[in-house]
Amino acid sequence: MPISVRHVDRGAWLSVNGTRELGVSTLWQFTDSEFCECDVTDFLAEGFAEIGIDGADVKARLAGRCIQCGIEGATPWLTLGRIIGAADREFYPVDQDAVQDLSSVRATHTGERYVACSSG
User: Fold this and answer.
1) Mean pLDDT, the chain, whole residue set
2) How far is CA 83 from CA 25, 36, 50, 64, in A?
3) Closest CA to 93 of 43, 22, 30, 27
4) Could you say which DSSP state residue 98 is in?
5) 3-state secondary structure (DSSP) of residue 105
6) How many CB atoms lie under 10 A from the CB of residue 63?
7) pTM
8) DSSP per residue, 35-55
């Protein structure tokens, strides 16, 4: 069963199978990134720059800023959630209060690995 993953409303929402799952104005925390020099980047998302799928993982590059140092731009690829279940293929978001360690992402992933998803 195919799954639809899109960013809608000019990049303000991640939609999975027509349901808005994650919106902007969310604080994402990550470490070991080239985005800024903060030990833990406190990133305020202002829009979805790109979304993609890597296996069961739904990933995105978010546009916004680090609220600690003020650097603005797009993040590296962050995991937003996973598609689970062979039949129902439901979306399960990551714990947005958790800090993502991006050291393995930077070492193994490039944007070309992700299947691009549509916008709406």
Assistant:
1) 80
2) 23, 30, 18, 25
3) 22
4) S
5) helix
6) 18
7) 0.76
8) S-S-SSEEEEEEEEEEEEEET
Q: Is the pLDDT of residue 118 over 80?
A: no
CB-based contact 77:104 (threshold 8 Å): no
Q: Residue 107: pLDDT above 70?
A: no
For CA atoms 71, 29, 96, 110, the dihedral sign is positive
How many residues are recorded in the chain?
120
Residue type, 74: A
Task: List, for residues 15-74, the tens digit of each pLDDT value.
Answer: 888 888 888 888 999 998 889 999 999 999 999 888 888 888 999 999 999 999 999 999
Token readout for 80 is: 């937003």
Residue 27, H or E segment: strand 27-31
Count of alpha carbons within 13 Å of 50, Cβ hemisphere only?
16
What whole-number percentage of the chain has pLDDT above 90? 27
Question: Among all chains, which residue has been given the structure tokens 């993982």?
Answer: 57
